[in-house]
Amino acid sequence: MAPKKYAVVGTGGRAAFFYTAIIKDFSATSSLVAFCDTNQTRMNYANSKIQALGHPGVPTYKAADFDKMIEETNPDEVIVTTIDRTHNIYIVRAMELGRNVVSEKPMTIDAPRCREILKAVERTGQKLRVTFNYRYAPHNTKVFELLSSGAIGQVNSVHFEWMLDTSHGADYFRRWHRDRRNSGGLLVHKSTHHFDLVNFWLQSRPETVFAMGDLRFYGRENAERRGETAFYSRAHGGGEAARADPFALDMAANEQLRAMYLDAEHEDGYFRDQSVFGDGVSIDDTMGVMVRYRSGAVLTYSLTAYSPCEGFRVCFNGTKGRVEVEVVERAYINSGGAQGEEGALESTSILLRPLFGKPVEVEIPRADGGHGGGDPELLNDLFGTPVEDKYNRAASHVDGALSILTGIAANKSISTGQPVKVDELVQIP
Length: 429
Fold this sequence. Notes:
InterPro entries: Gfo/Idh/MocA-like_OxRdtase_C (IPR004104), Gfo/Idh/MocA-like_OxRdtase_N (IPR000683), Gfo/Idh/MocA_Oxidoreductases (IPR051450), NAD(P)-bd_dom_sf (IPR036291). The protein has helices spanning about 15-25, 40-50, 65-75, 85-95, 110-125, 140-150, 170, 180-185, 185-190, 190-200, 220-225, 240-245, 255-260, 265-270, 370-385, 395-415; strands at about 5-10, 30-35, 60, 75-80, 100-105, 130, 155-165, 205-215, 285-295, 300-305, 310-320, 320-330, 345-355, 360, 395, 420. It is an alpha/beta fold.
């Protein structure tokens, strides 16, 4: 059987996760045939990366030539890793041209775009996968296993706290994510992972959402209120103010960041190293959400993007007991400037507390790789030889929609001060 052919649209930091895996680990079952981007410099760098791995460079196409790329290279599937607000454009067009799609999360950023994608799936009959790698991490799979086994009976409430540290969390405020028009804010871009996990763990759907959120730490006004007086717009060429700022990102000092972003600026004017305390930040950094699910369970969720530590705590309360999960992750700077693998773990623990019984420390299988060991499992599921997964972790367009709709509803609730019915935003099949 011939290897399945993939084209990649969007060649930023996340794209390398996919195209490197295809070339290094899955060449027997998958092949890379093209790159597509708005930026030729970035595509040239992606080609240099695969050539360093012994793979010949692949044809490159500007975004305006997306249809031409499909016609000339004939991929079986398109991998979409562009900025979030453009996912729908390439997902829909690829399906209209008869291709299946693999999309980086979030599937898209708002209800109209979500409806557009769902209609395209129905109209074309093509398949869309959303890459929720956290499902595949052994500790998250173990939680699913515990809950589905009935270890704590019916789950009635979930308390979920996610902490992004001053490396990872700050990075969203340096780059295009800081503009809500691009990312939908962290409740859509980042929390889509977390809301998907809750949907997956509970095997249920969000019904009603209420939320509060604000920008309390990042941004110029907050820095001014704390007494800051030295400001700069971006780290490169930012002078003494940038050199003295522990949040500043020095792209020139990192080969990949320099080649992928600094050297590519002349084409599109995108600055990867903007000051987190500058103007133009329109997303929240402090958020609280309540969700009622169709199962009757209620979620209380918190996301803080300026924590001194990275990781999460989640507790499930059920009719037969309680499960407590704590995960501490190592700090990193993504998109090529990594200090370590994204989501690499320092510690994990799962404690089962049955009613009227002694607490039990649950053993968690060990796994290597990013996102707590989830990345290799996801990549094998995408590009390797298909195997049956008893946990059904592969995420479809329906899963992609349900995860973002919690965040989209939360954004609407924050702006209106009212609870939001998810079904009133988008009808999910």
